[in-house]
Write a structure and sequence with these properties.
The structure holds 2 protein chains of 2 kinds. In chain A, helix 7 packs parallel to helix 13. Helices cover about 75% and strands about 0% of the residues of chain A. By secondary structure, chain A is an all-alpha fold. Chain A has one domain. Chain A contains 13 helices and no strands. Helix content of chain B is about 40%, strand content about 25%. By secondary structure, chain B is of the alpha/beta class. Chain B has 13 helices and 14 strands. In chain B, the strands form 3 sheets. A 6-stranded mixed sheet of chain B has the order 6-7-8-3-9-10, sandwiched between helices. Chain B has a 4-stranded antiparallel sheet with strand order 2-1-4-5, covered by helices on one side. Classes of the chains: A mainly alpha, B alpha/beta. At the A-B interface, helix 1, helix 2 and helix 5 of A face helix 2, helix 3, helix 4 and helix 6 of B.
Amino acid sequence: MTATTSVSSAPRPVAKAGGGLGQSVSDSLIIAKRNLIRMLRIPEVVVFGLFQPIMFVVLFSYVFGGSLAVGGSTDAGVYREFLMAGIFAQTVTFATAGASAGIAEDMQKGLVDRFRSLPMARGAVLTGRTLADLVQTALTLVVLAIVALLVGWRTHENGLKVLAGFGLLLLLGYAFTWIGALIGLSVRSPEAATSGGLVWLFPVTFVSNAFVDTSRMPTFLQHIADWNPFSATVQASRELFGNPGVVDSSAWPMQHPVLASLIWSLLILVVFRTLAVRKYRSAVD
Amino acid sequence: MPGAIYAEGLVKTFGEVRALDGVDLDVPEGTVLGLLGPNGAGKTTAVRVLTTLIQPDSGKAVVAGLDVLKQPNEVRRSIGLSGQFAAIDEYLTGRENLQMVGQLYQLTARDAKKRAALLLDRFHLGDAADRTAKTYSGGMRRRLDLAAALIVRPPVMFMDEPTTGLDPRNRQELWGVIEELVADGTTLLLTTQYLEEADRLAHDIAVVDHGRVIARGTSDELKAQMGGERIEVVVHQHDELGTAEAILDKHSVQGPDKGSVSVEQHTRRLTVPVTGGAKLLAEVIRDLDARGIEIDDIGLRRPTLDDVFITLTGHASEESEIDENGLDGDDPASVQKQGKSRKQKDQKKGAVK
């Protein structure tokens, strides 16, 4: 067989079953698979991604535990149980940085241009990336939960409620990766995306009920913390895990944390997905 | 009938900069157009508009018979793009890269796999197929990138500076691949800063500067605008320059276009425009010999595209950094250059008649 005939006898593209939606799903899965293969081949990223929350678990448990009062108790064991929902929530939101760095890298390396020149579903590059991040986040949560159990964290509700708690955490994480996607498309350099993807997360996760009892904050901070989307998920999972330190506040999200968590996460997801996909379509360098 | 790639009056501005300032292109099916110009001339912007990556502010573009602005997704099925940087995932193997792109071109998984295997062999990447692309050399990455662009063998290909940054051996090899592709009937638009590349690969050349096409034609036509060939002589003795000049002047192009002999004193080099080729060269050598003038070097020199470029744009093809900032296509200097090149063309036509 000569080279010439081999290049000419190319198969033609076929329409995927299921039309537009079917193609969206299959294209997204192809991109997700690609990103998961990458994660397997750069295990350092996954390992360091785990290292940071584990360090937080240990540091917060043993350094702050005993000196911070939760629900009127300064018992270190109580603080540890209180802490875990906060650490879990912080961990899922930190996946944002991975998404933003990954997409910025794809922009920089010209891969986004290649993808945009292909007859593929428009949102698939971003959906695939965020789905891969979701898988990574889920694995991180499993490892983290085991570490938490080792330092004395326990749940006090039935398995379904506990799973629902993790479900809300994952949904929050998934919604946040779309913020990451938008940041990645906007900054275009992986280095800037890593820091840009992280800096704003510190105030978001600290001005909340994640690590401290908000009733001891100044009033205006307390209001912010009560309405912080992040707090709703922390409160909801704390409640679903049966852990101590559930905030007693008259603010609506703190009264109905599960519903508030769902609403916030879906809202973030819809808004940032729309913005990110629009940005992707018009990306220019 | 418009060609496989057709553009009319493309304008694209980025803030103050008119990256494209009314570009017209027409590439007949199965031919290669070389878009030649310095950095910042608008070559990449033109490719990005034609490959649906950005929308022009105004103008019309048709690729493979499809309207780029109205049917972008249909256009994407019919084109392959190989950009300035190898757009491959370093952490995937060569095979995984090609299969992924194949599937995203909406091939079935099985077709994508078959096609990937075939192209890996074809581009001499068979041995490295299952290594991550991170381990590939620059030339291998380029070949993988090109293979990815060819996965469905699109009828229309765009290559944006395909050999920039490659060493001469890899460049030669890639040229070979591109030539085969074209022999196979693919229509190709190629941008390059290398005149040699356009000279070798392109049927037609469009010289772009400041977002405008300032000249077009075949390589030979463009060179002919330069007034054809010259004889260059380096004499051995400095005091023989005067005699040699007189002899060369006698052989210089006659008529209204009569060129004068230019003399470089310190290198003892004389240059004269001629028509008459090798036969005239032999005559000049005989004349010089008859007068006992010793020659260090003599040759018939045809203009290179570099000469063309400098004449048309007033600057060399690769020293453009300065121009990118200040000037745009509307500046009087560039309009004047365009006028000049047209005049040269007309003169040439007149001469032919």
